[in-house]
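Anyone up for a design puzzle?
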């Protein structure tokens, strides 16, 4: 089976789906009105210094001030004295920056929920084969290039291009690439950096100096070197633009580009549209009959595994082990698909065998190996939980596609009809004691009004006898289940 990238383009939104062996693995969404900030470079202004947090807030022209920690202020920037560079340690934030100071920063994490963007002064500019590091004289080589001979060859080629502007990191995609292509990349990145420096001199504070590539181009750049068989694009204009881009920067990918002109929407291929909908649900069914429950909160994500309808063929311990093994692959896929990051707590079904626990951890690590985001898995805790982290740089799929429920306000629960009925009866009693009224009218949702007329009619009648007054109930179609009004007449 093949590995494909499906690119769906509309004037307001671009979506990219990575499909491996006919199964959706990743979804990337960029809306024109809410383009991500990661990689963007800004001329910011320090708006507030927080010594207690060893951090500062930086105004980059966004609605929320961005966050810069002292550890993200690096030696090869204008923030740190040149004499400190050789023996750099994280210093006091109050000595590194001052309020009102102009500062050039790059976004490393998009704003998430109530938090502003996370910044660094360690500016980097990526290209096809290299990452440019302004102000550094260093040349590094990706650890994924294993051959020492190839690593040394690449390092020597790039070292010749290092000057006062900066150094480079050689990306995995550079393996086997000739000297000419690497030199072209270095010259391109230097031109780009000179343009950024020029804008820094001319632009006012709180303005953008460099904007990262749009999603379709960024994905193409980031997936270079991946084992892709086809890149299908459903927009003729975007297809032509990507073709020009690949011809200039990634010629070996030109033949993989394909303009999709099918009758059905491109995301109907491989059932992508329905898979996205399923990725927004809490429950994930496993083929064996077991299932996962995934709960995403601001602090962390929790994943609970259950055997469900799976009864196995041998004994209980074997059934539990097989369910947990199957769950590891499903968890790895869901983390990629939902783009879940930060702290993740996995509650596997309890296993008595130490060998089973070891094999489940091994299976989880193998399943996560295909994830391009950095992950770190700790062993089982004393409570039998697996703690892990996954690097988060962009909003999760749920945060992009969903908003807080106006009815439950993010609780994920609403009061039952029965609870609301009893609340209404108590409210009538309270109002009757406080005020002199002849009768009451209750305005409530359709479900609650119906319950007061049917299931709770006896309770309502007893209340009327108790207070000696009539209570009328009127349904309001626009009311939520918890919403009601008690009106005195």
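Challenge accepted. My sequence:
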């Amino acid at each position: 089976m093949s590995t494909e990238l499906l690119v769906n383009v509309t004037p307001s939104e671009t979506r990219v789906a990575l499909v491996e062996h006919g199964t959706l693995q990743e979804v990337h969404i960029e809306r024109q009105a809410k383009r991500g900030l990661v990689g963007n470079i800004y001329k910011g202004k320090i708006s507030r210094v927080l010594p207690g947090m060893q951090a500062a807030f930086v105004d980059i022209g966004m609605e929320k001030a961005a966050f810069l920690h002292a550890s993200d202020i690096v030696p090869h920037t204008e923030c740190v004295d040149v004499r400190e560079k050789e023996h750099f340690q994280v210093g006091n934030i109050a000595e590194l920056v001052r309020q009102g100071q102009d500062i050039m920063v790059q976004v490393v994490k998009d704003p998430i929920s109530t938090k502003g963007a996370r910044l660094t002064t360690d500016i980097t500019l990526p290209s096809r084969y290299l990452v440019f590091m302004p102000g550094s004289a260093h040349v590094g080589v990706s650890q994924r290039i294993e051959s020492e001979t190839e690593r040394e060859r690449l390092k020597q080629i790039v070292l010749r291009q290092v000057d006062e502007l900066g150094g480079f990191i050689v990306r995995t995609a550079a393996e086997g690439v000739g000297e000419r292509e690497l030199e072209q990349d270095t010259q391109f990145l230097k031109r780009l950096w000179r343009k950024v420096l020029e804008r820094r001199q001319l632009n006012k504070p709180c303005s953008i100096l460099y904007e990262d590539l749009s999603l379709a181009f960024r994905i193409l750049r980031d997936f270079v070197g991946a084992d892709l068989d086809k890149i299908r694009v459903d927009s003729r204009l975007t297809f032509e633009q990507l073709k020009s881009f690949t011809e200039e920067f990634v010629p070996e990918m030109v033949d993989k580009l394909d303009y999709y002109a099918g009758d059905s929407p491109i995301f109907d291929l491989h059932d992508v549209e329905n898979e996205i909908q399923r990725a927004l649900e809490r429950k994930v069914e496993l083929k064996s009959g077991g299932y996962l429950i995934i709960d995403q909160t601001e602090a962390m994500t929790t994943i609970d595994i259950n055997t469900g309808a799976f009864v196995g063929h041998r004994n209980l311990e074997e059934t539990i082990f097989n369910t947990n093994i199957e769950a590891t692959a499903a968890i790895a896929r869901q983390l990629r698909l939902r783009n879940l990051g930060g702290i993740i707590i996995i509650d596997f079904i309890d296993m008595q065998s130490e060998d089973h626990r070891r094999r489940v951890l091994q299976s989880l690590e193998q399943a996560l190996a295909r994830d391009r985001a950095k992950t770190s898995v700790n062993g089982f805790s004393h409570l039998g939980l697996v703690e892990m982290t996954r690097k988060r740089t962009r909003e999760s799929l749920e945060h992009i596609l969903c908003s807080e429920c106006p009815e439950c306000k993010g609780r994920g629960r609403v009061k039952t009809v029965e609870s609301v009925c009893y609340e209404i009866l108590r409210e009538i009693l309270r109002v009757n004691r406080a005020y002199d009224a002849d009768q009451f009218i209750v305005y409530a949702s359709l479900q609650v009004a119906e319950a007061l007329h049917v299931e709770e009619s006896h309770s309502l009648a007893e209340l009327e006898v108790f207070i000696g007054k009539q209570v009328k109930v009127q349904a309001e179609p626009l009311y939520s289940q918890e919403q009601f009004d008690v009106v005195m007449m």
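A detail worth pointing out: The domain at 3-35+213-273 is CATH 3.30.420.60 (Nucleotidyltransferase; domain 5).
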